[in-house]
Every structure is written in C-alpha cells, then in structure tokens.
Design brief:
The chain has 3 domains: 314 residues, Zn peptidases (Aminopeptidase); 134 residues, Glucose Oxidase, domain 1 (3-Layer(bba) Sandwich); 31 residues. The chain has 15 helices and 14 strands.
C-alpha cells in the first residue's frame, strides 16, 4: 500500500495537471521532508510545536471542504457555508472548554446583476469582478485593444497607449486587478477584460472593495483570452452590471481562561471564502492551523499572558470583520492587546515563506509598524533560521486584517505563503516550485480546494505559529519594551563584577534603554 505522503503527492500531481501548471510547479517541499528539531525556547512553545500535528489540521481542512461542497462550493460571509464553518470551529473550541463569542457586524456586499460579452459577433462567457464599477445601462460598444503581455501586463498606464476609448484585453499577473483598473482608467480605457494565466479555470476575481477612479473589470478564462489575442480591433459589446447590498455577518472570538487579560497575545485568521470558491488555502489553512493550536494549547493552560483567537468574516470585502472588531474596542480594551498576529494563506501550492516587515528594514514603502512589530518579525525569522528554511519579508501593506490593529498602534505581524504574485527564479531556487507561476495558482477561484494546499508548507508554518504563540504566552517583554530576562541577567552579572557601582549602574541603564 502506498504511503500517505505518496498518495498525497499523486493527488497534487493530478490537480496540477488539471489546472495546467504541471508537476514541476509543485514545490520541492511537497516531497518527503525531514522534520527539524524544535528550536530552543520557552517550554510551552516547544511543547506546543510537538503537539500540533498537521494530520489534525488537515482534518479541519477536510471538514471545511465538505461544508463548502454541500453549500454551492462556497463558505462566503452571510452564506450557510460560512455559518456551518463557524459552527464547526465554535463546536471544537467549546468542547475544549473555551467560551466562544459571536460578534455580529453590518457590511455592504457586492452583487452582480448582469455580465455579457460579444467580440466580432461571437458571444463569450465573462465574469464581472466583485466591486467592479458598472457600465452604463445596456453596456458599451467599442473595439478590442490587445495589451502586449510582459512581466507586468497592464500594470502601467503606458501599457494602454493605444487603448483610449476602447475595451482592453490584458493577461492576469504582475500586479493586482485594482492596479490594472486604475492604470487603464488613467489612459482613458472604457473597461478591461483580464484573462487567466492558468488553463481550464475561469477568472472570477474581486477588487476587494469599491475603488474610486477605477473602471469596469471582467474576467475570462485563459483559453478565451488567447482566442481573443488575434482579434485586436474587433468590434466589442460588453455589459457589466452590479449593485451593493446591506448584509450582516459575525466574527468568532475565544480566549484562554488563564493568563493576564490585560496583556493579551492575539492571533487571527479569516474564516470566510470568496463567493466563487471553497477557500481551502485562502483561508482554510490559517483558520485550521489556529483552531488546532487553540485546541492543543487548551482553554486553561499555564501561561503568563492570555491568548485570544479570532476567526474573522467579510475579509475579501476589505477586512471588514477585523476592522469592526478593533474599532469597537475602547482605548483601554485596545491597550489590553499586547500584540496581534495574522495568518492568511499559509499552505500555498507554489509557496514562498514570508513574514511581515515590521521594522521596515526592507524599505518597501509601507513604513514600519507600531513598536513591537519588528520584534514579532524577528521572532518568526529566528524560528525559521533555526529550522533552515529561509524567509523573506513582505511589506506591511494594508491588505491584511492586521491593518486595523496597526492603525491603532497595536504591534502586528504574521506569516503568509503568497497569492496572485509571480514567483521569481531566485525564489524558486531558494524554496522550490516554478518561477513565473503565481504562488497560489487558484487564488480566490473555484479550484482553491484540498488539492491546492502543500501540507509540508502548512506543517512548517503551523509549527512556527505554535512556537511564537507559545513564546509570547510566556512573555511579551520585548514587545513591551522591556529587555529580555537573559539580557537583564547578563547585565546584572556584569554589574556585580564591576567594583565601581556607578559604572555598573551605567551599564544596566544602557541595557534597559538600548
């Protein structure tokens, strides 16, 4: 009988072939991998790593997949799929002794009321991207303008130099749909059609939230897009219509009974999927890992600091659930949160290993996070260094749930394995996988299923989360600006050996302030 790992790899191969990325796109990590020794650190952190088993985490993913399958293949906010996902998570937590609260909040959803496309007299399936602007009633009739495909197709206004007043056709990849839409708008384009960069899968995307200054965006499959590449200048009739709808959803919150409740270690992941897929990597992986860590930690662990877990909703709509949660806290309640860590997509099939650049050491543009964010970054970097897995820093960009915490001065960080951006050759050399392919080939699509997850990547990230959560549950001294105990002890020892008391005092003062 084949081993579980052999069976899994065969399944990955079948999935990869189905979406056209080929077995070569499967990261090297998908094969058998040695389990690294648990790094030195607090006893709780080390114990938690040993307890958290990826087989249990995968069982949670199977549950989320089955819930999606029996609810139209979605677990989106305000759907039965989300409610059943939340019931599953809450039921497991309550059975482990946690008290789980549901925080309801209102939000505005986007609903497509019509989408049609005709090119050269032939109709073609098109999907209006969520939060895309609508075209005038009845749509528009113009000509097709094919945008050349390069490393960043349609990401700059200059890409649309000949597309003013036309409908532009552009490949997915290189930048977000929002960037493409704004660049095209700046060039005077009427609307853009984005075709997928992997075969067999229709492109059902989202702009995340209404974007002022953007233009209508439709999605096509790769095959449809390639068929249109030869029809530059052909007559086009396009109609994309939608409207906004008032809805409600809720977050799940659970906290350990033990530990200081005025110095809380908080970790979160969004539980909902997009409407157009089951969301097993985005973000079943983060949700399942947090659930398993919470269950293994227990509701009443021996910790110095309480640990609060959150499963957010309405994330693809602009991190609405997390923003509502933070804004609903008064200043003292916000002050009770020592730090926040976010985990979104931690098992991407063509994965990278990213932590967030809390101290802006990479000078990527977003700037540093609140004091303590750099320490969270270092905690994850130190863990991965000890296991031999290289990390990269991802800019602390405002597109994850931590953004609400950052804007209110709460130290933030987390892990991420990549979404729609393309893996470089340097990254492929470092981590395995295929350069030129997106980190997650099924990001926010119907194929984001159990076959779209690398379990080795998920296992490594789950262990890292367990270790850092356990470490901060033991002590948040570095986050709070207090030198670590080992550093203070070393300084006191040096001071005791110094005959001149003033020199000793100066040495200690330097350690505390530096």
């Amino acid at each position: 009988m084949p081993s579980a790992k052999t069976t899994f790899r065969a399944g990955v191969a079948l999935f990869a072939a189905a979406v056209g990325i080929g077995l070569a796109a499967v990261p090297a990590s998908a094969g058998p991998a040695a389990v690294p020794a648990v790094p030195d650190g607090p006893a709780l952190a080390r114990q938690l790593v040993k307890k958290v088993d990826v087989a249990n985490t995968n069982r949670h993913l199977i549950a989320l997949q089955r819930i999606a399958d029996r609810n139209g293949r979605t677990r989106a906010a305000s759907t039965d799929g989300f409610d059943q996902s939340a019931d599953y998570v809450a039921g497991k937590l309550e059975a482990a002794g946690f008290t789980v609260s549901r925080q309801e909040f209102p939000y505005v959803d986007d609903v497509t009321s019509g989408a049609s496309l005709t090119v050269g007299g032939t109709a073609a399936p098109v999907f209006r991207m969520r939060y895309s602007e609508s075209l005038p009633a009845g749509g528009v009739t113009s000509t097709l303008s094919v945008v050349p495909n390069d490393a960043t197709p349609g990401c700059e206004a200059s890409d649309y130099a000949t597309a003013a007043g036309k409908v532009a056709l552009v490949s997915r990849g290189g930048c977000s749909f929002v960037t493409k839409s704004l660049a095209a708008a700046a060039a005077g384009v009427l609307a853009i059609l984005v075709y997928n960069n992997i075969p067999f899968v229709p492109l059902i995307g989202t702009l995340v939230e209404p974007i002022p200054g953007s233009i209508p965006v439709g999605g096509l499959s790769q095959v449809q897009g390639q068929q249109l590449l030869t029809q530059d200048g052909a007559p086009v009739t396009l109609d994309l219509q939608g409207f906004l709808d008032d809805r409600t959803s809720y977050n799940l919150i659970a906290e350990t009974r033990t530990g200081k409740h005025n110095n809380v270690v908080m970790a979160g992941a969004h539980l909902d999927s997009v409407p157009d897929g089951p969301g097993i990597n985005a973000n079943g992986t983060g949700s399942a890992a947090l659930l398993e860590i919470a269950l293994q930690l227990g509701s009443s662990p021996k910790v110095n600091n309480a640990v609060r877990f959150a499963w957010w909703s309405a994330e693809p709509l602009g991190q609405i659930g997390a923003k509502y949660y933070v804004q609903d806290l008064d200043f003292e309640q916000q002050l009770d949160i020592a730090l926040y860590m976010n985990f979104d997509m931690i098992g991407s099939l063509n994965a990278g290993y990213f932590t967030f650049d809390g101290d802006d050491s990479d000078f990527a543009g977003a700037g540093p996070g609140p004091y303590g964010s750099g320490q969270i970054e270092k905690a994850f970097a130190d863990y991965f260094d000890s296991t031999g897995v290289p990390l990269e820093r991802n800019d602390l960009e405002p597109t994850f749930e931590y953004s609400a915490f950052v804007s209110n001065g709460i130290p933030s960080g987390g892990l991420y394995t990549g979404a729609e951006k393309v893996k470089t050759q340097e990254q492929a050399d470092k981590w395995g996988g295929v350069a030129g392919q997106t980190f997650d080939p099924c990001f926010q699509m119907i194929c984001d299923s159990l076959g779209n997850v690398d379990r080795v990547v998920l296992d490594r990230n789950s262990d890292a989360i367990a270790f850092v959560v356990g470490s901060y549950a033991t002590s948040t001294e570095d986050i709070n600006g207090v030198p670590a105990r080992a550093k203070r002890a070393k300084t006191r020892t040096a001071a005791a050996r110094t005959a001149d008391g003033s020199v000793a005092k100066a040495a200690y003062t330097a350690a505390v302030t530096g």
